[in-house]
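Give me structure tokens for this 188-residue protein.
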Amino acid sequence: MLKSRKLDTEMPRSEANSLYQRADEEWRRGRLRSAFTLFLAAAKAGMASAFGIVGQFYDHGDGVKANRNAALYWYRKAYRHGSTSAANNIGCIWRDRGNLGRAILWLKRAANLGDGDANLNIAKIYLHRKRDLRKATDYLNKTCRSRHATEGSKEEARLLLGELKSKKAKRTGANTLRKVATGRADGR
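Here you go.
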């Protein structure tokens, strides 16, 4: 369980900025443990832009032992400070834990805030876990139309839509063949 600590807001803003900049430089150099330590210090000092990054480090185990509860804590702080990607990441954690209702709730929050990639994550839940092809198709189309989805997400959505159309065509063709084989080609 993650211990809740009061953020050290007494640190001057310039010192928190300095911690963040040093952390960013360490990250670019591949020094993940050092980067994590500095980002965490900046986040504890109230640097809102560090909240989501600390969540990401905990989420992926970069420079620190992976801890999804800690990741949720920092992602929630980032979300409360306006991060759409944090809402998407929270939804993905809940999806991975099997809590699909909570996952969809957070992913919809992210989508409503403009995170177009969240629509793809919702579509994949409906496609693979809930087996609701209509809703999956709706969210895949939203991904394709979004101005805020990455090109990678749009491409994946197009590929999934193509697969769905192909499967539907095969099912339709197989049903027609079955009807012809049983003498019921007229649809009765």
